[in-house]
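Extended Data, panel c. Modelled sequence:
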Amino acid sequence: MNALTDLTKLKTRFAQLPKIELHRHFEGALRLSSLAEIARTHQLDVPAYDVEGLRPHVQVMPDSPHTVAHFLSKFSVIRKFYRNAEIIQRLAREAVEDAAADNIRYLELRFTPKALAAASNLSFAEVIDRMCDGVDEAQRTHNITVRLIISLNRHEDAAEGAEAVYAGLARKARGIVAVDLGGQEEGFSAEPFRGLFAEARQEGINVIAHAGEWASAENVRFAIEQLGATRIGHGVRSLEDLSLVALARERGITFEVCPTSNIHSGVFPSLAAHPLRKMRDHGLRVTLNTDDPLLCNITLTDELCTAFGVLGCSLSDLRQMTIHAAESVFLPLPERNVLAAEIIAAYDNWQWI
């Protein structure tokens, strides 16, 4: 069997495995075909109205520079597409449909209300409602469970962030389960958000923070000790501080690792340099995620193939990372147990086809 055939067979098999994704940004999970259609319909001020013309402006290309600035520049174009409530609802539905097509059984989809409100002139509350409506539509017709996470940017105003969090708190019954701190990590402290995140925890909302991605391990420590984060987005620089590694192990912190995104955004120069395996070797609770499937032009199946075929993870490693994901979802314990049991059964029945 040649390498290409073997890779195709591997991807086919991984595509059929049930999956869990904890770290996917809605704004980075849109369909290129839908963006092109929306651009044409609304005559948007964007570089192109066709799929291939738009692609290099919203996706990392093979010859693109792998830098933070280039990666984040894609969102300045993407933010122009949220013209009205109907578009937001449609794109939310499609994002969930695409996840379900990749056999993702449970998805936590994070979104930034400010980003969606800016182009649509909707309130944060209206944006959240339309996200919930789109997700609900998709859940009714696909075998997937979805929960939503309110994401804030640390480089933006904390007072506006508070408005988004309060709107989310009022909609916990619609599937809002957590708040997340993202944005430009280097040069922007999480300190202005500490009180807000404490208030969110008191109201029964979980806390996540992007940390240790584009800045040092110290940001991971701050997220755990000061923000009360139980999950860390990325956290791939945690191994710079072994005392932090011990703290994360002791507290059972889950790391939402996104290898391809980390290469595209310049965190590491190559997949060979990525610390996914080392993080596992240090006993950290690692999960595998896409981050931004549109920008990175990947699926979660692709990330499984990369972890297995490039990063040196065994089938047992993939099984355990997916179980960690099931154990870390923001659902009641009985539902977490059901998810974990499905993952265990699927991997235990693994066979080439």
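DSSP finds 17 helices and eight strands in the chain. This feature is highlighted in the accompanying rendering.
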